[in-house]
Amino acid sequence: MKLEVKNLRKSFSDTEVLHGISFTIESGKALGFLGRNGAGKTTTIRILMDLFSGNSGEILLNGKKFVPKEHQIGYLPEERGLYPKQKVLEQLVYFGQLRGLTSKEAKENALYWLKRLGVEEHKNKKLETLSKGNQQKVQLAETFICNPDIVVLDEPFSGLDPVNSQILKDIIRELIQQNKLLIFSSHQMGYIEEFCENIALINKGEIVLKGDLKEIKKEYGMNRLTLSDVNLSCNELKEIFDNKLGNIATVVDEKKDYLIIELMGQNTKQDLLKALIELNIDIEKFSTYQPTLEDIFVKKVGDAS
Amino acid sequence: MRNFLIVTKFEFLNLVKNKTAIIATVIICLLLSLGLSAPTIRDTFFSSSDEEIAMDQDQGAEHPPSSGRTYGFINKGGITNVDDLKQRFFAGELVAFNNQEELEEQIRSGEVEAGYIIESPTQYQHIVQNNELMGTNPFAFESALAEAYRISAFEDMGIEYSSVEGIISVHIEQQDTVVLGTDSASNYMYTYILVFGLYFLIIIYGQIIATSVASEKSNRAMEVLITSTDSTHLIFGKVIAGALAGICQFGLVILTGITAYNLNAAAWDNSLDFVFKIPGSTLLSFSAFGILGYLFYLFIFGALGALVSRTEDVNTSSTPITLIFVAVFIVSMTGMQNTEGMVLKIASFVPFSSFMAMFVRVSMGTVSTLEVIASLSILAITTALIGYLASKIYRMGTLMYGNPVKLRTVLKLSKGKSLSR
User: Fold this and answer.
1) Residues of B with CB under 8 A from a CB of A
2) How many CB atoms neighbour CB B69 within 10 A?
3) Torsions phi, psi of A170, nearest 5?
């Protein structure tokens, strides 16, 4: 399956909040949908889920107009919500039935997911009596109950402790392996890096960066290296660059134990290495720089700001 | 349709499994059963022996039961047959006083209930500590004084009062009334009960539906629901479930009442037939108008619940419609006194009030079949339109969080292309 969002625009009153955003998601390749608060992530997801319509643009699934109600979609909204005064199993069966399952199937699936998420013993309790983390797990069970082909997770890890996060990570990996189409929205970049092959970074209603995460990292790491010395501190090493190596490379960032440097002009890694040896630098670390998604996010969103 | 049934079932079970509703229904049914069985229980467990009854009856003829209260009087007007006055005063014991101060003192201390100063055989003054709206003392005394006057007057004319008493106090017995049109007098009580029941049903279940929608919005279950099924299924399911639960509850109470009465009708000497013997045609018109009107208001309450984000705001949001509804109720209840009144006639065609007003007219007045069909059709069409509109408002309102949304804003938005899909 291939889901394409094309030139989507949305206005509330007279304010346009989405300025023609486009991105693509394919089955088996999770999309990390990133953005600051108020960037337009939830609005995009709500349009995708047909909670409201965009002013213009189109959403296509395999080249045809995407109608959410014609597909099994597991949707975990940002604003979690189930019935607090209802028993866990009863409401899961209800939601399962609303998504086309028979009562029996809904019950079986609900029990499976409750067991899988470790909250089976709470099946006959009212939701409001459960801890926040367990309520979050019930909400996840609701999301997966219909064995969805398309999964939209908005901040799925919020409220989960490390043990439960690991359970969810395993489930997400499984969904990807099962070739599901998965959209993953989160502020926690670590999780995006862990699961998503593709990302779409939205800022102020515009997609400012999208594509294959590895390629993006490679691109952002291009001409950049990390360097540290056995004897010199990062500050001392930076002074050497400023005074003696300015024509070959420049320091772009200073971390606790190493510097991030960028090659100037046509200079290569070999040129820099040669110059460092000539200056008797006792190299401790010399490698190609791999930016984190957080670095890319901060840089892109910072640039746009 | 499938999802509509699933929503209806879920919501219906939630309502009927509600402990408060179960307890309230059980208590009402129990009280009704006990109340209607009271004469049977009394006859079975607390009845006196035949001799005692006969003796009581004999004594009653000579000495009517007294309340044990004491009343005072001063004979200023100089009536001659004080004994007759005392004998004919059945509200309690009538004690003579010599002066007003003493009588007033006794009234203030509570020893004496009230006092009467006889100014002349046909004039008296009433003295009482607190003048109560429902107090009957002056009437009891007035009756006794009138009888004493009659006795004295007849004696003056040389006629023995006992020989004419039967003529003066003749008991006229009315045979059954032959009603050619609608018997409003007989229909009054059950019409009153049914209208009153419908009033409470709409007020209670209207609030339940509005609160239920608002709570789905406040606990954010709405977003999951709307992505799981059509909003029309949700609002229609919710409203129909509320309507069914209300009908079941009201029906159970009515059924309990009718059954309990039928089982105890003999003990009541069929004296409550005018309440419980509801004609089938009345029940049919009540069902048709009542159910449509009930749905009409439930849709409105459901839509209003979608306009607020917190359950605390439901009352504020539903106040205008509640006021309209109360006005409709007052018009209908007032109309029961005169079913040919113009206000009731107009109200019987306005969808907001027709379900109640037309039912009152059908039950207690004379209405042509054409009028009934016209009113029912207007109500049915309007209810369907309100249902459609409610689903639109529900769809729009449920995703608007924050301050209560104005109805006008939602309607405006629901028309807008940008938000419609």
Assistant:
1) 3, 6-7, 10, 14, 216, 219-230, 399, 418-421
2) 12
3) -60, -40
pLDDT top residue among B175 and A227: A227
The amino acid that residue A187 corresponds to is H
Strand partners, B414: none
Minimal CA separation from A10 to chain B, in Å = 8
Q: Do B224 and A84 touch (CB under 8 A)?
A: no
Helix (H, G, I), strand (E, B) or coil at A3: strand
> Do the chains contact at B224 and A73, CB–CB below 8 Å?
no
Size of interface A-B (CB pairs under 8 A): 59
Q: What per-residue confidence (pLDDT) applies to A1?
A: 85
Topology (CATH level 3) of domain A2-213: Rossmann fold (3.40.50)
pTM for the full model?
0.73
Decide if the complex's ipTM is over 0.85.
Answer: no
Contact B302, B388 (CB under 8 A): no
Instruction: Pull the structure tokens for residue A92.
Output: 């899961």
SS3 state of residue B218: helix
Residue A237 CA to residue A243 CA, distance in Å, equals 10
Q: Using an 8 Å Cβ cutoff, are A258 and A285 in contact?
A: yes
CA A124 to chain centroid, in Å, comes to 34
Q: Can you tell me the distance from the alpha carbon of B42 to that of B45, in angstroms, rounded to the nearest whole number?
A: 5
Min CA distance, A83 vs chain B (Å)? 6
> Nearest CA of chain B to the CA of A53: how many Å?
5
> What integer pLDDT is reported at residue A110 of this predicted model?
94
Interatomic CA distance for residues B43 and B294, integer angstroms: 41
The torsion defined by the Cα of B20, B22, B25 and B29, in degrees rounded to 10, comes to -140
Contacts of B190 (CB under 8 A, 6+ apart): B274, B275, B276, B278, B282, B363
**Side chain identity at B253, as an amino acid letter?**
V
B309 vs A100 pLDDT, higher one: A100
Rounded Cα distance between B249 and B236, Å, is: 20
Domains A2-213 and A222-289 fall in the same CATH topology: no
What pLDDT, on a 0 to 100 scale, did the predictor assign at position B71?
Answer: 92
Please state the domain extents for chain A.
2-213, 222-289
Q: Which chain A residue's Cα is nearest to B395?
A: A51
Cα angle A100, A104, A106; round to 5: 50
| Nearest-angstrom CA–CA distance, B273 and B262 | 9
Of B7, B14, B224, the CB nearest to A142: B224
d(CA B308, CA A146): 31
Chain A, window 159-198: residues with a beta carbon less than 8 angstroms from a chain B beta carbon: none
Collapsing DSSP to helix, strand or coil, B190 comes out as helix
Task: Tell me the pLDDT band of A304, cut-offs 50, 70 and 90.
Answer: low
What is the Cα–Cα distance from A109 to B261, expressed in whole angstroms? 51
Topology, domain A222-289: Alpha-Beta Plaits (3.30.70)
Q: A66 in contact with B at a CB cutoff of 8 Å?
A: no
Neighbours of A65 (CB within 10 A): 9
Q: Are A85 and A128 within 8 A, CB to CB?
A: yes
Residue indicated by tokens 């977003």: B223
